[in-house]
Specification:
alpha/beta; Rossmann fold; 6-phosphogluconate dehydrogenase C-terminal fold; 2 domains; 3-stranded antiparallel beta sheet; 13 helices; disordered C terminus; prephenate dehydrogenase (NAD+) activity
């Protein structure tokens, strides 16, 4: 097992930040947390999380790994505070679902080389510290985004957090590839769920529709039943990629509607090509050395579905992920 960092600081103790804090405490990592809500700080302290009363006091220890688990609208101010009270030994990452805008804010604050994007592919429709769980982020896939300027030491710290701290796997990507992918598998589903919920609860006889709603409706609208502002902010932050996907979906739905109205066959819509079978690790596992080309090689591996599962004397250990659709809740 790799030694944990000297300190892990989590700024924001909502669903993801709070769940991560609980997970790391159980894994015997030293965790210091902060949240702007004093009631949340109190509840987190009762769960065994060391609590700081300010951002400055939370981040002041040299060499810390700082995880920013705050809404995108608060990132710029938090990054500026972090830059003012830390030095180059500090690593900063976030856990949001959009990466390119966050890297831009990190660069503006002067954190560019020591910023690493991170996105755990797990969650629920609920929010807040009351919804947190130490199991939510264990054994899931995380996306880690880097660029050519990312410091190798900062990247390694975040990989340790993911693989050692949460027993998870890290798919290494660049920001654009990540944002385009999550538009398809997370952000567009949020938009479609909201549209479906609105469709069923409006129009004629909404009471009948609600009375008859069962499993398929529940599953299709689950993510629209939480905080709509969170969904709106997430979709808008990745607006360009989401818009491209929505236009593609809309075109397919328009064609489907026309075919249904004219009585034509619609197998083209419902019969999706089968996904690739899972490719388990073992013989397929390999290592990428932490040499000069580490960032380029790891991003290339990530685009083929190979994830970092640990660190050894040879470098980063990779194994192929399953390729079929499905998995943890976005």
């Amino acid at each position: 097992m790799v030694n944990p960092p000297r300190g892990v600081v989590i700024l924001g103790l909502g669903l993801i930040g709070g769940s991560l804090a609980k997970t790391l405490v159980r894994a015997h990592w030293r965790v210091r947390g902060w949240d702007p809500d004093p009631d949340v700080r109190s509840a987190a302290r009762e769960c065994g999380i060391e609590i700081a009363e300010s951002v400055d006091s939370a981040c002041g220890e040299p060499g810390a790994l700082i995880v920013v688990a705050a809404p995108l609208r608060e990132m710029g101010e938090l990054f500026a505070q972090i830059a003012a009270c830390t030095d180059d030994t500090t690593t900063v990452c976030d856990v949001g679902s959009v990466k390119a805008p966050v890297r831009g804010l990190a660069r503006q604050a002067g954190l560019g080389a020591r910023y690493v994007g991170a996105h755990p592919m797990a969650g629920t429709e609920r929010s807040g510290f009351a919804a947190t769980s130490p199991q939510l982020l264990r054994g899931v896939v995380w996306a880690i985004t880097i660029d050519d300027d990312t410091a190798s030491g900062s990247f390694r710290r975040v990989v340790e957090l993911v693989t050692d701290g949460t027993n998870s796997r890290a798919l290494v990507l660049d920001d654009a590839v990540h944002d385009a992918a999550v538009a398809k598998i997370s952000h567009v589903p949020h938009a479609l769920a909201a549209g479906l919920l609105t469709l069923a609860t409006g129009g004629s006889d909404p009471s009948v529709a609600r009375a008859l709603a069962a499993g398929s409706f529940r599953d299709g609208t689950r993510v629209a039943r939480g905080d709509w502002r969170r969904s709106q902010a997430m979709v808008e932050a990745n607006g360009e990629a989401v818009a491209i996907c929505l236009l593609e979906v809309a075109a397919r739905l328009q064609r489907l509607a026309a075919d249904l109205a004219d009585g034509r066959d619609t197998a083209w819509f419902f019969h999706a090509p089968p996904g690739e079978q899972a490719r388990p690790g073992g013989p397929g596992a390999r290592s990428i050395a932490a040499g000069p080309a580490w960032a380029r090689e790891l991003r290339a591996a990530g685009r083929t579905g190979e994830a970092v599962v640990g660190i050894d004397a040879d470098g980063y250990v990779l194994e192929p992920l399953a390729k079929e659709a499905g998995g943890a809740r976005p």
